[in-house]
Specification:
10 strands, single chain, three-stranded antiparallel sheet, five-stranded mixed sheet, alpha+beta
């Protein structure tokens, strides 16, 4: 807890700890209960910060990089101080951010990721073959995570044998260990970040030594130059590749796991997807709305207002994207997956200058993964599921009972 700033109204204070270990359902229920107080509330946890739950408020903050910075020293887009190089480019602002973003956008162009369709589907079918005949599946470990990780490690051309180790480190870097104190969490996140950074340095050294020289994403980034023709500084290069790894291994699998958990509890939605494959792109957008994974923060650079609430210079503002995507002021039936939703302005990929560069890849992976799963599996239901909130929301596990799977590796 902290000494609460004088400009924070007492009637806007809520008891919210982003790292409390709440499930997604619990976190969303809390956010919904705060709406009676207003779209912007304050918590004293994690250094004290604002929490934005409205769609309009989240859009305002994320769209305005001048008033809400991503590059606060020792903080970036996190709620607490960090002892690491800030992530590149999401914890940069202005021209510096633009330079690095320019390098990455071509690597995730819709045309480039569409060329990966066959590979994505081959991996999906191979994974389904591993559990289809058994009649059960733990979605996170057996489908969503290995599919997303295999695709992204392939793009980077990093050893697939390191997948599980890297997934574990990515989870620790994002949320820390479960049920840990703030000090324990900070120590675990720092250690995980250091291990990831060293792993990245080893991969960079391989490329530069000529041991493994390829045309993969890692090599392209290493050979890239900034606007002035200079190479990317070593510390920024490591921070950039570290971010790509963490984002690639965690966020897409989170949405896929949440999607299959929802479908496993709603057989009518499951059947609709199976019988309307031409609508899968729109269905993916609805699941992105329903299961947004990342909850970014910003730092106010000047005194301002959000939804009529005074935000002081230096205040931390936490954008609860999942709550914004369930805002009844923006969406009819916000807690139900409406596959025929006419307008879907979800903010799962953020908005503004920091909108997710990897969105085209995520959409392609999600669409292919959902289609292949429902092409192979005639029906399935959830036996048990467990989720988590935090810096990135997702499923810990989703156990499915599967009926009548057609296995084609």
């Amino acid at each position: 807890m902290i000494m609460r700033p004088d400009h924070v109204p007492a009637d806007l204070v809520v008891d919210f700890n982003a790292f409390s270990g709440d499930s997604i359902e619990q976190a969303l229920e809390k956010a919904e209960s705060w709406r009676r107080l207003g779209p912007v509330v304050w918590t004293d946890h994690n250094g004290g910060h604002w929490v934005i739950t409205s769609h309009a408020g989240v859009r305002q903050v994320l769209s305005d990089a001048a008033r809400f910075s991503s590059a606060q020293p020792r903080k970036g887009v996190t709620l607490v101080e960090v002892d690491r190089e800030l992530h590149v480019p999401i914890e940069m602002d202005g021209d510096e951010h633009r330079q690095y973003r320019r390098l990455l956008i071509p690597l995730f162009s819709p045309r480039r990721v569409q060329q990966m369709q066959d590979t994505i589907r081959d991996v999906a079918r191979s994974l389904i073959a591993g559990f289809g005949e058994r009649g059960s599946c733990e979605v996170v470990a057996e489908y969503a995570r290995p599919l997303a990780s295999s695709m992204f490690l392939g793009m980077l051309d990093w050893p697939l044998k390191d997948r599980e180790m890297l997934e574990h480190l990515a989870e620790l870097q994002l949320n820390g260990p479960a049920n840990a104190t703030q000090e324990e969490r900070a120590a675990a996140k720092l250690d995980a970040g250091n291990q990831i950074a060293q792993y990245v340095r080893d991969r960079v050294a391989e490329r530069r030594s000529g041991v493994k020289a390829t045309e993969d994403m890692t090599s392209v980034i290493i050979d890239s130059t900034l606007d002035d023709g200079a190479p990317i500084p070593e510390n920024k290069l490591v921070a950039l590749l570290r971010l790509l790894m963490i984002a690639g291994l965690d966020t897409t699998q989170s949405v896929l796991s949440q999607s299959l958990a929802y479908l496993g509890e709603h057989p009518e939605a499951q059947e609709y997807l199976r019988t309307h494959p031409e609508e899968i792109p729109a269905i993916v957008e609805e699941f992105l709305r329903m299961g947004a994974p990342a909850m970014p923060s910003r730092t106010a650079t000047a005194d301002t207002e959000v939804e009529g609430v005074r935000i002081a210079k230096g205040d931390t503002v936490h954008c609860l994207i999942a709550a914004a995507n369930h805002d009844a002021a923006e969406y009819d039936q916000p807690d139900i997956a409406v596959f025929t939703r006419a307008v879907n302005r979800h903010v799962a990929f953020s908005v503004g200058p920091h909108k997710c560069i990897g969105a085209p890849l995520a959409r392609v992976v999600l669409a292919a993964a959902l289609e292949e799963f429902h092409r192979a599996v005639a029906s399935y239901s959830v036996v048990a599921a467990q989720s988590h909130s935090g810096a990135v929301w997702g499923m810990n596990r989703v156990d499915l009972a599967i009926k009548n799977a057609t296995v084609t590796a």
